[in-house]
Design goal:
Structural class: alpha/beta
Number of strands: 10
Helix content: 40-55%
CATH topology of the largest domain: Rossmann fold
Largest sheet: 6 strands, mixed
Strand content: 15-25%
CATH class of the largest domain: Alpha Beta
Shape: elongated
Strand order of the largest sheet: 3-2-1-4-6-5
Radius of gyration: 22 Å
Number of domains: 2
Order of helices and strands: HEHEHEHEHHEEHHHEHHHEEE
CATH superfamily of the largest domain: HUPs
């Protein structure tokens, strides 16, 4: 454990690091206040415990200030004396630029993360609350509503979020106390983006009525996490009964014998285990319709990286990277 005279955020990071099997970290550094505080915590830790750190800046290239953030991150890492890399995103025109940015950002992070490293992001309590509300609006089930985890896997790399249970107020206090240099991102004021709208308008309105809304949502996230784990364990014990030649094929005739709610959970868990994609009820109902059709044309269902076809009484799932 780190000396308690250090800021509690540094101790928080240290406590979570002690649960990991690796001691090399790739810090996702945007140049904003959150990742700047995170990076400073890890720099301080690296001088007193045996960890190695380097940072990566993902330039989304969607604002005119993007180059300012890129140059700021380079300069700060030079001052810290740590290895730093910059990667640019080449985004295609999309009706959902937020989701496109998120997916491409994580692709870059996992691509440049070494096998012996852990990716570290600066997600905090407010981010968790926003994620819950956004997923609620999108019709997510228990797994989606359990939101982000302090440790999770993505493309076989560990994503580590040591500040996930830390209020934004503590990050701001650390920034002032330690004179952290960062850049304000003006795009955070643009309410055309769903997350900004939730952050800037929805949450303040909810807090004006229910000041402890964050605490209530965090508790609800814990409940959803417990429920989804129980459902997943129960469904996983059933799944092998429906496999055909392998776990990418389900037997349509057997599925048609079970009740609707069982069908929903089997398909949901099957798709998640094979692809890490979380389907909502609308998606699953589209797949259920396939069960009773004689149409074996390809593909019958596509979403995200998932494609599902029906062939001779089998549902066949394939994924693309």
């Amino acid at each position: 454990m780190v000396n308690l005279k250090l800021h509690k955020l540094v101790n928080t990071c240290s406590a979570h690091i002690s649960t990991l099997k690796k001691n090399k970290f790739l810090i996702a550094y945007s140049g904003g206040i959150d990742s700047s505080v995170l990076l400073d915590c890890f720099v301080k830790l690296s001088s007193i415990i045996p960890i190695e750190i380097r940072s990566i800046h993902i330039n989304h290239g969607i604002t005119k200030e993007a180059i300012l953030f890129e140059n700021h991150c380079k300069e700060m890492c030079k001052e810290y004396g740590i290895t730093h890399i910059t990667e640019n995103l080449n985004l295609m025109a999309s009706s959902n630029i937020e989701e496109e940015c998120r997916k491409e950002r994580y692709k870059k992070l996992t691509k440049y993360c070494h096998e012996d490293e852990v990716i570290v992001t600066a997600h905090h309590e407010e981010d968790q609350v926003e994620t819950f509300l956004l997923r609620l609006m999108r019709g997510s089930g228990a797994r989606g509503l359990s939101s982000m985890k302090i440790k999770s896997q993505y493309h076989k790399k560990t994503i580590f979020r040591p500040l996930l249970k830390v209020p934004k107020s503590e990050i701001k206090e650390y920034s002032v106390t330690n004179q952290i240099t960062f850049i304000e991102d003006d795009s955070n004021k643009n309410n055309l983006f769903d997350r900004n709208f939730v952050r800037n308008d929805v949450i303040p309105l909810l807090k004006s009525r229910w000041p402890s809304i964050n605490k209530s949502i965090i508790n609800n996230i814990s409940v959803q996490d417990i429920q989804h784990k129980f459902i997943a364990d129960s469904t996983n014990s059933l799944l092998p009964q429906y496999y055909v030649l392998n776990d990418k094929e389900l037997d349509v005739a057997k599925l048609n014998l079970v009740k609707y709610h069982t069908k929903v959970m089997i398909i949901h868990e099957w798709v998640f285990l094979q692809s890490n994609v979380i389907l909502n009820l609308k998606h699953i109902n589209e797949i259920i319709k396939i069960l009773n059709t004689n149409n074996d044309s390809n593909p019958l269902f596509t979403y995200n990286s998932v494609t599902i076809n029906k062939n001779r009484g089998f549902l066949i799932l394939s994924t693309k990277s």
